[in-house]
Write a structure and sequence with these properties.
With about 250 residues, the chain is mostly helical. About 45% of the residues lie in helices and about 5% in strands. The protein has a two-stranded antiparallel sheet with strand order 1-2. β1 and β2 form a beta hairpin. It is elongated. It comes from Parnassius mnemosyne. This is Ankyrin repeat family A protein 2. Keywords: ANK repeat, Repeat. Pfam families: Ank_2.
């Protein structure tokens, strides 16, 4: 049957050419609307899932997920030459193990110097504190690690723990003598990092341990200013309540 011929179906005249054109337009709309990048909003909604890394699906016949051949699927297809992929070996360095929480007292004893730094100038305690590994922090500190040792940018373990909102690690470090008011190379304190990232429990812990609210960084920002600038409502409330409590005691 040629295009442009009208046929009768269920009592209605249907133009085959027009219907075919409508279907193509409909397919084009579906394809375009489904190919938007997930980080962009469209007129019909917000946040579309992107089918691949760049969010552009080049063909309607391209699968959303790439087919990955494993050793098992290759063998099932009769490919006896399938090679088992080599898995990457985990980093077993002293610092990486501390960051993963896998360090032991025996590992610490094997090191000649517990505060030995990695190629970036960070100690194992820096790593453990940054990743919130309380047990590793305890093993390191109780084996003689310096809680106030500075990194390449003047950061201490307390800075890194506070920046990640690791409340229990912050509490432990303070109990072990960490200085709450040490400022790194940018003039920032642990309280400033916790406030700017909106970690209320960490902010409260630092405040009740005597962290100085009046200190400012190199950008003339104090901890409270950072909460308002970054819209950190939880940390802002904690600081305000702390200040009200201090005023009521005067």
């Amino acid at each position: 049957m040629e295009e442009g011929v009208a046929v009768k179906h269920e009592g209605k005249n249907i133009d085959i050419k027009q219907e075919k054109q409508d279907n193509l337009e409909s397919f084009k709309y579906d394809f375009d609307s489904g190919s938007q990048d997930s980080s962009k909003s469209g007129s019909g909604g917000y946040q579309r899932w992107a089918p691949n890394l760049n969010g552009v699906r080049k063909s309607a016949f391209t699968p959303y997920k790439s087919v990955q051949c494993t050793a098992l699927t290759n063998l099932q297809r009769g490919n006896t030459q399938a090679r088992v992929p080599e898995l990457p070996q985990p980093d077993c360095s002293f610092h990486a193990k501390a960051g993963r929480g896998e360090i032991t007292r025996e590992d610490v004893k094997l090191e000649q110097y517990v505060d030995i730094t990695d190629e970036h100038g960070l100690t194992a305690l820096h790593w453990a504190a940054s990743y919130g590994q309380l047990n590793s922090c305890q093993d390191l500190v109780w084996s003689g690690a310096n809680v106030n040792m500075r990194g390449p940018e003047g950061e201490t373990a307390l800075h890194l723990a506070a920046a990640g909102g690791h409340h229990e690690v912050v509490k432990f470090l303070l109990n072990e003598g960490a200085d709450a008011d040490i400022q790194d190379d940018s003039g920032s304190t642990a309280l400033m990092y916790a406030a700017a990232a909106d970690f209320p429990y960490t902010c409260n812990e630092l405040l009740i341990r005597g962290a100085d609210l009046t200190l400012t960084n190199d950008y003339d920002q104090d901890a409270y200013t950072l909460t308002t600038t970054n819209n950190c409502k939880l940390a802002q409330t904690v600081i305000e309540n702390f200040l009200i409590g201090c005023l009521s005691k005067m």
